[in-house]
Each structure stands twice: as C-alpha cells, then as structure tokens.
Amino acid sequence: MNDKRSFSLYKKISCLAIGIVAAMVTYYLASPLFISTELNEPFPLNTATSISYDKFNNMAEVERAEVAENMSKSEKTQLMIQYANISSSSSNNKIDEFINDTARTSEMNNSIISGSFIGVNDGIHNAEGIAKIIPIQDDANILRLENLKVTNGPDLYVYLSTDKSATDFVNLGKLKANNGNQNYNIPVGTDLSNYNTVLIWCKAFSVLFGSAELKDT
Predict the structure, then answer these.
(1) Are residues 74 and 124 in the same domain?
(2) Bridge partner list, 171
(3) Distance between CA atoms of 193 and 196, rounded to whole angstroms?
(4) Which of 8, 35, 76, 106 has the most C-beta neighbours closer than 10 Å?
C-alpha cells in the first residue's frame, strides 16, 4: 500500500514538474509575440568631418566666419544638426523636421549604401524598413535601421552576412527593439563588399525574419 501511495505521489510531482517546465518554455516562445517594443535613436553625426558645436559656438565672430567659409557642405550640414539637437528641447516640431531634412542632405553628401528589408512573410516571420551603412569617424561605420517593423520572436539578432542563410556573418548584437530607428556599431575593418546583407535572425532556432541587400545609393 505504501509503495502505491509513494508511486502516486511521485507521479503527481513528476507531472507538476513537467507542467512547470512546459509553461516556462511556452511563455519564453510565445511572450515576444505579444510584447512590442520601440526605440528611436538619433541620426549619428559624422564626427569625422564635423566641428563640434561647443568649439564653433565659442569662436569669435570673425573666426567663425572664416571657418564657415572653408567648411564643406557636408560639414555645414553636420554642424547644423548639432545646433538643432541642442535646441530641440526648447523648440517645436519644426526642429525635428529640420533635423530630418539636414540628415537626408548629409546622406546625399556621403557615400552611403542602403537596402530595403524583405520579410519571410509567412505570417510569423517578417521585417520591414530600411538599412543604411553610415560612415563616421576613424574609418568606422554605423548600421542604421530606419522605420523598422519586425515580427516579435525570441532571441532576435542583427547580422551583417554574406548571404540570407547566415553562412558567414558579423554579429552586430541583439535587436534593440522590434520597431523604430536604431544604430548598430560595425567593427572596424569589416569588409562591407563581402558582408553586404543585413539579416534579422533568430539565433535560438536559426530562422530568418527578414533581409536587406545593401547597394550603393
């Protein structure tokens, strides 16, 4: 009799343990599908060619005029973005429009490669938005994802890859949010002619959500 009771108790405990583990796995896999996150990071300044706001603002009027005369169009644009960012806390939406306009002008004055995301589009895995490589200081580059919309999923990462299958890739880190505008540092020395495809990749299950092929614009 005692053996039967012990077996019954063991069976109940085993079932309870299995149920808890199953619930945890289900929550891990399913919860991202119902939790949407958003992050909007500012357009990165091209500090390789920009004079800082503080330095320019502290110059004498004559010196500022002389420096401004010798600045390229791109440098002027970057300086104006800095002024706009600093004053935006006390201004209105027109500043945001100005920042966007000057950012687009900056892009046109730099060698930027970009591409549009194409999602798997199977109802579960999808990605939309624009991927851009933006040069910054010391031969470094930033991957910027704009107007990003990604289906939620577990363990999503951003890769620079040689193909859509992540055969050979550079891991830029975990996806910061599934919506918004985001910047990712690219390791110095990365061959962008080889790693020319951006992937939103589920690392846990090796599943593609979306890809963007980068081309000169």
Answers:
(1) no
(2) 159
(3) 6
(4) 106
